[in-house]
Amino acid sequence: MEFNMENTERPTRPLLFDFHGVSMTHYFTDNWEKVQNFQARPDDILIATYPKAGTTWISYILDLLYFGQSAPERQTSLPIYQRVPFLESDFHVFPPGTEVADKLPTSPRLIKTHLPVQLIPKSFWEQNCKVVYVARNAKDNVVSYFHFDRMTKVEPEPGDWNNFLQRFMDGKMVFGPWYDHVTGWWEKKQTHSIIHYMFYEDMIEDMGRELDGLCSFLGLSPSVEEKERVIEGSHFDNMKNNSMTNYSNVPGMDFKISRFMRKGKVGDWKNHFTVTQSEQFDEHYQRKMNNPNLQFRTVV
Ligand code: PPS
User: Fold this and answer.
1) CA atoms of 48 and 195, how far apart (whole Å)
2) Ligand 1 and 116: CB distance under 6 A
3) Which CATH superfamily includes the segment(s) 20-288?
4) Which residue CA neighbors atom 9 of ligand 1 most closely?
5) Over the stretch 104-161, which tens digit does the pLDDT of each residue have?
6) How far apart are alpha carbons 5 and 251 in whole angstroms?
């Protein structure tokens, strides 16, 4: 599969538009027919997240779990976004996600999506594929999203922090409202045991515990040494310094503005929200989030 990194054509920032009730940009709808008709296989593992919730982290953990030992060369030769195709993406400089996924030689295939649950191609449900969903608290999620949108031209113009925060609260973000995304997947999980719902904050707090839960869901029983290798390899500092996981070789990202592996913390929101913004956000949050069983932590 050819990924042409020499194509330096400067992308212009895309506009948001309504797509089946969800704000989107053309990068995620241009290939929609093939996305909707994508043929999942029963052993595919779908990694589903709202943008900036820890997608790359969980992708790398899964890749290490499945292929860390059997295909060590993969770890040094193939960037994570080529190992784990981004299903709905069609960035034009890369082959579309569906094509990369179709050509993946691995079994299982690890496939990334940011789609809200109602837009997932139906073959994933028909094939009863396992889904690993990672959710991150809204305040850290919006901060991470803001810095990401500042540094990459494939996202709409972020504007200043205050406007961005308001847009997030209004749900006018690529892939729609955070509130609906995390709740929609949470509710789907209640009737679909093939969904494993994880929290970024839990992973930060105790990766060993979270890895045990994940392995038990996947039916994997790695040795103590293997688990240690996965935990060590997926530690923020190691992923940040690893050119296969830190996105340093992706065109269209300006690391002088912000790095992809930026802080990797819970609670960075406190460095961004003013007291007034935080109070307004909390008040709005209470109105939007009405499932008492879905609780997030903004500190650990
Ligand atoms: S994307 O573009 O949606 O795929 O981004 P995503 O990978 O979901 O989110 C990026 C944020 O996740 C942080 N990250 C990590 N945190 C802790 N530990 C590890 N290993 C790790 N890997 C990635 C990354 O730093 C981004 O968060 P912020 O808050 O911006 O640092």
Assistant:
1) 10
2) no
3) P-loop containing nucleotide triphosphate hydrolases (3.40.50.300)
4) 52
5) 999 999 999 999 999 999 999 999 999 999 999 999 999 999 999 999 999 999 999 9
6) 7
